[in-house]
Amino acid sequence: MKNFDLSLYLVTDRLLSLGRPLEYVVEEAVKGGVTMVQLREKDCSSKEFYRQAITIKACLKPYNIPLIINDRLDIALACEAEGLHIGQYDLPYEVARKILGKNKIIGLSVENVQDVLEANKLDIDYIGISPVFSTPTKTDTAKELGLTGVREISLLSKHPSVGIGGINNSNARDIIQAGADGIAVVSAIMSAADPRLAASQLSDIVHQSKLKV
Length: 213
Ligand code: TZP
Ligand code: MG
Prior knowledge:
With about 210 residues, the chain is an alpha/beta fold. About 40% of the residues lie in helices and about 15% in strands. It is an enzyme of class 2 (transferase).
């Protein structure tokens, strides 16, 4: 059964973890309230990506938090992740679904209204609205969508949505109020001095904002 909660979605970047082991930051973040984790590691070998995936999978298991692999279908299969996240330039959704089967979670990044209309035709599990704000964490993004974009896209989308890009304590509430089901963050947790505290603050903001939506 697919069971997931997009409320606070941590996307990893080992290069932003201030030298701390990825599994340490991830586990602290989960203890703080992260509901979903995406392993997104660039510039590393397949062997290293696989090793990280196995380590993070084991770390999430006791907490029942789904592990989603960014882009690499082979790694998602190899580590028996709960799902895969694909972007507009990755493997087509149909190919991923055919290989992963109907019980896995597949998320798709959308960068504009046209992408959402196309996504509505697919049996994906969620969309990532990308990027909401510009961010130093990923510079090759499409144009920032802003809160107006989040509002428009979440209204149009037939799938649940999560905003990503430049999200932190000061704007997390706006993203939920604009209609997203959750927030996805990299640096706000990966680079926090105390990742557990950072996650718990973001989690509180998301849950309080949902009560008011
Ligand atoms: N996709 C769109 S923006 C982004 C990704 C992976 C990076 C978001 O990083 P941060 O640090 O939360 O702004
Ligand atoms: Mg990608």
